[in-house]
Amino acid sequence: MADADAVPQGALDSTSMRIVSSVACMCFFLYLGHIIREKLAVMRWAMMPAALIGGLLALLFVQLCTLDDTVSAAVEYDWIVGWSQVPGFLINIIFTTLFMGSKIPSLKEAWRWAGPQLAYGQILAWGNWIVACGLTPILLMPVYDTNELFGSLFPVGFEGGHGTAAGLTDTYTELDFPEGGDLAITSATIGILSGVIFGTIICNIGDRYTWTFTSYRNTSRDEEQNSSSGDLPVVESESNASFTGSLGSKQADNAKSLKPLGEEAQTTSTTEFNIEDDTEDYDDGALPMLGRDWKSSAVIAVENRVPGSYLTISNDAIDTMALHMAFIGLALLAAYFTKRGLMVIDGFIDSEYSFLSGFPLFPIAMLWGLVVQVVVDKYTVISPLDRGMMERIGGISLDFLVLSAIATTKVEAVADNLLPLSILIVVGIAWQLLAFFFLGPLMLPDFWFERAIAELGKSFGTTATGIMLLRIVDPRSETPAMKAFSCKQLLHEPFMGGGIWTSLALPLIKSLGNWPVFGIAAAFIVFWFGMYLFLFRKMKLGPAVQYRFVAEYNPLS
Question: 422 CB contacts (<8 Å, ≥6 apart)?
């Protein structure tokens, strides 16, 4: 914020007015990002969210204002006051809502669906830390004199996304790497763009070479129509009934199949999984791309709109959203006292670094949100929590977090570290692609492409990107990939991608160095690969590696 002497004459003096102007300015850029996304098809093709576009516009606006000291002082004082504190606050709300509102499946059920998926996702995530902690001491520190935490920018930005990057900004500062937060946010932005670009290209490769179930089915149908020698064999299962019939009678079943955790629970992501309420029959069993494609407007037609949340409490008692915010507040309060306890314990530890004090609040809030949900499930006959409402609260928090985090990025810090950051990201992307093309078909027991593409999108930045890529290749969620991916997230998120390990890794690197953390990551990769060899390999039908889709090796039922 500008100093009092630098504030131009006529600037607003009322604190409340300054808050109003700053919030209104943030909303203006968010809406402007939405309008630009609607008008420019290339933005929709790139799947760039309005918050990201608005954040980049706000960043450009702020940088242009710095050309004049008076204008810059006025803007900082009246229009963007508090923006830099917004990400650190909202990330706690986002992580608290991750598991709230959904009935938590048993570990046995989650493991049954997600075991192989979890092993693959864990190897992918720990491999990010191998890249980070290996490249930093070998190349980045001796050649570019970077901070020892520099390599963590890749897993924090890519695997964690904007939310985690913003949440760890204070931790980077406490660990003597003040520019780390800005660089991590830049890494997250590059991750989203890379995920969409590389992911879309790979989806087209999978369709062209019949690596996906959808491309296999469509190819089989075309060959049936052009052949007079009889029907080709297809997978006989209830999920595959749309091979030869119209879709009108299957819409209800398809809607259920889009709940990735089955009938008992919904997804932990803040992304909706709704299909258009379309009862039209399609000729020849053709499968339309359900939902929107990039050519369509983001505004949903009235006849296709579905509820985003439900009222669970009578309004004469308390507003439903207010009650949900109260539950979130309870989890945050418990997280606050937990963090205070860690700080007290840290005071009794004779160490050069504040290991426990540097642990961020948001993963603690996530765990307490999970505890609150378990308690609600156990002690209420009818749960007052609605998953859709939690998604709306988490969604609005994420949009404003992304916008404010990007808008307040310090461009100078990015420019000074552009070359080592570029090297780090290029090597990291190479690891992601290597894992997809070689480990994916090896480790995943069935429907390897659908399962692996979701993990690729997630590891490039957000769960939403992974789900978006999965929807491209499996638009009706006919394969088990969505359920496996969502169950895997329940087991994966508390530790990686912004979870406990991501938060622990930074003070560990600072106190122990990169090589011990490299060793920890390598040990976990060996562990999970051993899990694959001894537990999950026997679940796979057919050869160890099979790129092309073969129906007999990938049963739908």
Answer: none
- What tens digit of pLDDT does each residue of 342-388 get? 888 877 776 555 556 666 777 788 889 889 998 998 888 888 998 88
Alpha-carbon gap, residue 191 to 496, rounded angstroms: 16
Mean pLDDT value of segment 279-300: 48
How does DSSP classify residue 34? H
Average pLDDT (261-273) is: 35
Taking residue 381's Cβ as centre, other Cβ atoms within 10 Å add up to 4
Identify the domain boundary among 56, 81, 106: 81
In a domain, 217, yes or no: no
Same domain, 68 and 98: no
Nearest to 19, CA basis, from 7, 30, 27:
27
Provide the whole-model pTM.
Answer: 0.66
In the predicted structure, residue 230 carries a pLDDT above the cut 70: no
- Is residue 516 one of the residues assigned to a domain? yes
Examine the fold and report which residue of 59, 81, 103 is the final residue of a domain before the chain moves on: 81
Select from 290, 319, 315 the least CA-distant residue to 214. Answer: 290
Domain ranges, residue 430: 91-208+312-396+410-553
Distance from C-alpha of 172 to C-alpha of 153, rounded to nearest angstrom: 10
For residues 377 and 462, membership in a common domain is answered with: yes
Asked whether residue 438 falls in the same domain as residue 498, the answer is yes
Rounded Cα distance between 7 and 294, Å, is: 45
The 10 Å CB-count burial string (b at 16+, else e) for 38-56 is eeeeebbebbbbbbbbbbb
* Mean of the per-residue pLDDT values of the chain: 78
Q: Are residues 348 and 427 in the same domain?
A: yes
Please list, in sequence order, all residues whose beta carbon lies within 8 angstroms of the beta carbon of residue 16, skipping any fewer than 6 positions away: none
Q: What is the DSSP string of 210-279?
A: T-SHHHHHHHHHHHHHH-SS-PPP---SGGGGGGTS-SGGGHHHHHHHT-TT-SS---SSSS--------
Report CA-CA distances (Å) from 61 to 40, 53, 118, 264, 406. 20, 12, 42, 47, 12
The model's confidence at residue 266, banded by pLDDT at 50, 70 and 90, is very low
The answer to whether residue 245 sits within a structural domain is no
Return the closest-CA partner of residue 175 out of 346, 359, 341: 359
The helix, strand and coil proportions of the chain, stated in percent and rounded to the nearest 5, come to 70, 0, 30
Is the domain of 366 the same as that of 484?
yes
Cβ atoms of residues 187 and 425 within 8 Å: yes
- Is residue 105 located within the same domain as residue 150? yes
Weakest-pLDDT range from 104-113, 285-294, 471-480, 535-544 = 285-294
Contacts of 96 (CB under 8 A, 6+ apart): 328, 331, 332, 335, 362, 365, 366, 368, 369
pLDDT at 74 over 80: yes
Average pLDDT over residues 34-41: 88
Asked if residues 308 and 266 have their Cβ atoms less than 8 Å apart, the reply is: no
Q: How many domains does the chain have?
A: 2
Distances, alpha carbon 241 to alpha carbons 29, 217, 253, in Å = 46, 12, 11
